[in-house]
Amino acid sequence: MHELLNVMRRLRAPDGCPWDREQTHESLRPYLLEEAAEAVDAISSGKLEELPGELGDVLLQVAFHSVVAQEAGTFTYDDVESAIVAKLIRRHPHVFGDTVVSGSDQVVSNWQAIKAAEQEGKPRRAAERVPAALGALAREAQAQKLARVQGDRQSVLRALQEAPDSEEGVAHVLSAVVAWARSAGIDPEVALRSHTHQTLEQLPDEASHGQQ
């Protein structure tokens, strides 16, 4: 990681790369989302030989933001690493402490309880607890989880029957579909991304399409 950080510092140096020097936390936002999405795509498509490169692109974003922050004096990569290490140790008392758990369900329950205790005295609005940059389906799923919304196939059918042909109607149906997916233990964002990928794979490429 330190070699990557040194490369980034060189790129950000006065005699480095003009483009890299111009970047800020704000300008890098779309790249962080894009690189994470491409890593997910590599996993979903089963192309694991591409995953190291895609994860490297994600790691690049971590290094980029860390170097930008270090230059501004706000934080360093060491702060990023120490924060996540401390969090993992703190939230796994069954591994690093004396807590005994019966299985993964209790691990999740303990994680949520520890997280809630950490945030005590620092209440956040619901809108702040669900990242705005998430995909629409993923964000709806998180919102439903907070609101304890339940759904099933019948709720989707009812939504289809009742919804008007409008933006609000479509949103109502999509919300019902997300609730149905959650009840079935399916991540709607991942499911739709996989379906879209399959659709795109079946389309002719631009060159062959142009020759028809």
TrEMBL record:
Record protein name field: Putative MazG protein
Q: Which InterPro entries match?
A: MazG-like_dom, NTP-PPase_MazG-like_N, NTP_PyrPHydrolase_MazG
NCBIfam families for the chain: mazG (TIGR00444), PRK12333.1 (NF008986)
Q: What species is this protein from? A: Deinococcus deserti (strain DSM 17065 / CIP 109153 / LMG 22923 / VCD115)
Gene Ontology MF terms: nucleoside triphosphate diphosphatase activity
Gene3D superfamilies found in the cross-reference section: MazG-like
The record ties this protein, via Pfam families, to:
MazG (PF03819)
Q: Which residues form the NTP pyrophosphohydrolase MazG-like domain?
A: 23-96
Coiled-coil ranges per UniProt:
none
Q: Write out the GO biological process terms.
A: dATP catabolic process; dGTP catabolic process; dTTP catabolic process; dUTP catabolic process; response to stress; TTP catabolic process; UTP catabolic process
